[in-house]
Structure to design on (226 residues):
C-alpha cells in the first residue's frame, strides 16, 4: 500500500531551527509539499517548496489563503532585544504561534509541532519563561488532535544575526558539556539541527499517542537519532 505524501506548513523558516526544518522537510520523501510562511520571499528554490509571504499580524484574517496540511510546524521566536519591547516579543513568541494554531485546528490539521524553551512555565516570574509557558498552555487548549512541544536549552548553530552573549554562552556550553552528566545532562546545549530532526521524527512516529506531548531538552538527541 502506497501512502500519499503529506503537506507541511512551516512558520519561522528563516530562523535557526526553521532553516534546518525547511532543509530537512524538503529532503523528506514523506512530504510532497512544504509551505513556508515568511515575512520576506525566500531565496531558496525547490520543486516541493511553496513560499508564501504573509503579515503575521493579520494571519487569521488571511487564513483562507493557506492550504490545508496535515503537519504544522512553528519555529517562530525572537529576543526582547531584537523585538524592541516585551509587547513585541510577546507578539512573535505567543500571539503569532497561537494564531497559527487556531488556523491549524480550523483547517483539520493532524498535529502541530512547536519550539518553546527549557523552563517554559506560565506561572514563572521570568517574563521569557512565562511567555513560553503561556503559548504552551494556550495551544494546549485548542482542539488540535496532537500537539508536540519541544523545549531546547541553549541552541547551537550558525545564526543569521550575531548575538555576542549567545556566542559566548555557546562556547562555554560546548567546553563544559563533558562535565554535564547525571542530573546536569538536561542543561546541555543542543544543536538547532538536532531540534529540527527531533521535531520531524516526533511528527512521523507511528506509535505516538494523540494529545499533548512535551519533549524536554535531554530527550531531543535520542529522538533525533530515530
Amino acid at each position: 500500500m502506497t501512502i500519499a505524501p503529506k503537506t507541511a506548513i512551516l512558520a519561522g523558516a528563516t530562523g535557526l531551527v526553521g532553516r534546518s526544518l525547511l532543509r530537512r522537510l524538503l529532503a523528506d520523501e514523506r512530504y510532497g509539499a512544504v509551505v513556508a510562511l515568511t515575512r520576506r520571499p525566500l531565496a531558496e528554490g525547490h520543486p516541493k517548496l511553496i513560499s508564501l509571504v504573509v503579515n503575521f499580524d493579520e494571519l487569521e484574517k488571511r487564513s483562507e489563503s493557506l492550504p490545508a496540511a496535515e503537519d504544522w510546524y512553528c519555529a517562530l521566536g525572537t529576543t526582547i532585544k531584537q523585538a524592541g519591547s516585551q509587547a513585541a516579543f510577546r507578539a512573535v513568541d505567543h500571539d503569532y504561534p497561537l494564531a497559527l494554531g487556531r488556523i491549524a485546528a480550523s483547517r483539520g490539521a493532524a498535529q502541530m509541532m512547536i519550539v518553546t524553551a527549557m523552563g517554559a512555565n506560565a506561572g514563572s516570574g521570568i517574563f521569557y519563561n512565562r511567555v513560553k509557558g503561556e503559548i504552551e498552555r494556550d495551544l494546549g487548549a485548542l482542539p488540535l488532535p496532537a500537539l508536540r512541544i519541544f523545549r531546547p536549552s541553549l541552541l547551537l548553530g550558525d545564526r543569521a544575526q550575531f548575538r555576542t552573549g549567545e556566542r559566548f554562552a555557546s562556547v562555554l556550553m560546548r567546553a563544559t558539556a563533558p562535565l554535564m552528566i547525571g542530573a546536569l545532562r538536561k542543561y546541555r546545549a543542543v544543536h538547532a539541527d538536532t531540534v529540527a530532526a527531533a521535531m520531524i521524527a516526533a511528527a512521523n512516529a507511528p506509535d505516538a499517542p494523540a494529545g499533548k506531548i512535551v519533549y524536554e531538552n535531554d530527550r531531543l538527541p535520542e529522538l533525533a537519532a530515530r
